[in-house]
Amino acid sequence: MTAAPSNTTPPERIDTEEQLDEVMTRPGPELIREVSTLPSPLLILGAAGKMGPSLAVRVRRAAEAAGANLEVVAISRFSSAGTREWLESRGVRTLSCDLLERSAVTQLPNSPNVIYLVGLKFGTSQNPSMTWAVNTLVPSFVAERFAQARIVALSTGNVYSLTSLSKGGSVETDPLTPLGEYANAAVARERLFEYYSRKNGTPVVLLRLNYAVDLRYGVLLEIAQKVWARRPVDVTMGYFNCIWQGDANEMIVRSLRLAESPTAAFNLTGPEILSVREVAQGFGELMERPAQATGVATETALLSNASRLCGILGQPATAVDTVMRWTAHWVKQGSRTLGKPTHFEVRDGGY
Length: 351
Ligand SMILES: NC(=O)c1ccc[n+]([C@@H]2O[C@H](COP(=O)([O-])OP(=O)(O)OC[C@H]3O[C@@H](n4cnc5c(N)ncnc54)[C@H](OP(=O)(O)O)[C@@H]3O)[C@@H](O)[C@H]2O)c1
Description:
With 351 residues, the chain is an alpha/beta fold.
């Protein structure tokens, strides 16, 4: 994939996965500018999940566009077939590593900059000990190993309790006292990065993300699929925030310069609070199928306010209306999806 102009206007619709990948990995002008300042290599840990591959290729494309000599190294177990080849064929080096093995983490290459995407959420109810291990041991091993690096570590908006709609979303100084084992393990992930940041002076920035949307997974896809299948959309969890995954990836890499010791924390999401009912109606119009709703919207929801981060990095480039238009077309065409539901409806913290 070649580096494309960064300021291309978003396409009217996206027809193929190849086109989706092109749009999703197209770097913005700020990233192209800022990537030149990054010394090589850049390590991405937990790179084989939903976000990592497109993030890695986006940085590669930014480096190519800037003429920068930046090696991007994607590190994961690569449990899903094809991801490694997809990355390698786009100029990203891959290393297979089980980051739960401390001795394997110590052997990873040195790097001045690390992006940390490892996490485990789903399956917590069945095996909570694995969720705690992935979200606490891996951050500890990584923070020890990369004490000299700058680290951007992904966290989640789930670290907050449900918040009242009128408040406009949780802010970074709110208490981290959520419900459920996953969310508490995510708080622990943050606290361990903070502990090592204080102990070793490691600059770290924690990004509390909710929710990234792709056309192959995410809250918008799930609502659109229900409308298209003429199934009712449960609006009890009545509101949410989301951000186009390409924009989230852009902001994740650009946040490297915000790392500090002790850790800084920022919410990462889109600027608006979206109503599940209104989004369903919007998809109904786009897909010419009446949306049906069930339940009554509760006054509290999992909501974050990302004003602080957007005040520094700017607003996400892709409007939610654009993503909805793309999503409606994607669902109508019956294009491939990941089959990985977000469970954004969950209100009791059980995943
Ligand atoms: N996507 C969202 O909407 C969203 C929302 C809120 C927060 N986040 C946060 O953002 C981060 C990235 O999101 P994502 O959606 O890409 O997550 P994801 O799909 O769960 O990807 C994380 C990847 O980490 C790798 N991993 C897990 N355990 C590992 C281990 N022991 N050793 C090496 N690699 C391991 C896994 O790939 P392998 O099995 O191949 O190793 C996994 O696919 C997550 O940590 C999550 O907390 C994401």
